[in-house]
Amino acid sequence: MDYLKENPAQDLDHGNDFTLQNISLEKLQDVIDWLFSRRNESGTKRVSDSRKLGTFSKILQNKEALRQFRDGASLETASVLTDEPDEILSKSINCAHANIKTANSVYMDAKDCDEGDIKLLESIRIYASAIRNGIQQKLDQLDD
User: Fold this and answer.
1) Residues 35-75: pLDDT tens digits?
2) Do 117 and 100 form a contact (C-beta atoms < 8 A)?
3) Is residue 70 classed as helix, strand or coil in its secondary structure?
């Protein structure tokens, strides 16, 4: 983990060895505090769940996200400055596509369809349309 290294540029001279000699004790203390100390006003840990360690790691690798997290921004707020939103969007769209494709292949054989299914599909359509329009708008702005 480059964040813990006293001088990450030393890797050029000494390879990628991660030793206790090149760890910044101040940065190690920060990580320990963020993972185990209770710092938020609500008394919860800054990194409240082990499932969020990937997000935390991305924050540590991004200077602006790290600055905001250090200044008190939540994990979720700071993660917006990383590539996390792009990954979440891509994975979510791909997962939704796979699930809709599966539903499309079995709906004719389903026996318990009802109005709730129609309402849910309409909601999915609205969300999909909003996401599509938002992405198209971003792409159009890039073309200008």
Assistant:
1) 988 677 777 888 988 999 999 999 999 999 999 999 988 89
2) no
3) helix
